[in-house]
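Long-time lurker. I teach an intro course on protein structure, and each term I like to show students one example going from raw sequence to a predicted 3D structure in token notation. This year I'd like something fresh instead of my usual example. Would anyone be willing to generate the tokens for the chain below so I can use it in lecture? Attribution to the forum is fine with me.
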Amino acid sequence: MEQIGYGEHIAHTVKNVPYEAAIQTEDIAEQLAEKFALPYDQAKTLTNVKLKRMADKGEIERLQKGVYCHVKQTVFGKVTPSIDQVLLKTLIIQNGVKIGYESGASLFNKLGLTTLISRDIEIITNRYGAKLPEGCHIKVRKPPAVVTDENWKYLQFIDMFDELPDAHTDAENPEQLLLQYAKRQQLDSLTLIFTARRYYSQKIVLPLIDLLMEVKNEATSR
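-- Reply from a regular --
Happy to contribute to a lecture. Here you go:
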């Protein structure tokens, strides 16, 4: 009877995952372990078996190892959410903790640095070794340091500044837009400099200092 209880709990948990969110084995297993006071390894094995059975029945769809998504049956056949959007969340957030961030041309477009619309989305993530399914428009890259809740905004900003000289930009003053973004994100100038010195090429440090000094000079001249 306990096995049935485990399976029912897993199915119920899966049902409560939002349609466009990833169904991740690790997340489901953690909830199962907590609910039934099971060792995590046992809970993960049970979860793997149940999710595979659900996928075999067409109730959910496997995207990659440990990651599934919902399936809706319509008059036009089987429908799943956008694979890109589902996978993005697995590369950026894990167990409620930040592990990645967007970068590259898609981010430049969102911030108004370029009108060029990129087909692919570049994600800097601790899960840079993840194998993504064919047809996915996500490119993953290794971060300069392990991404955390505390440092991701700083790493993201320095990445953008580092890529700016070689990026396609058609904004009138892209550096000023970057500074405005840093202000909105409430980034500390000293933390930016220390982060750049620690994790990036030294050739970026002085230009970054020059950029940040513009803000201080403007503030003191008012």
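Some talking points for your students: The CA atoms of residues 196 and 202 lie 8 Å apart. The longest strand covers residues 60-64.
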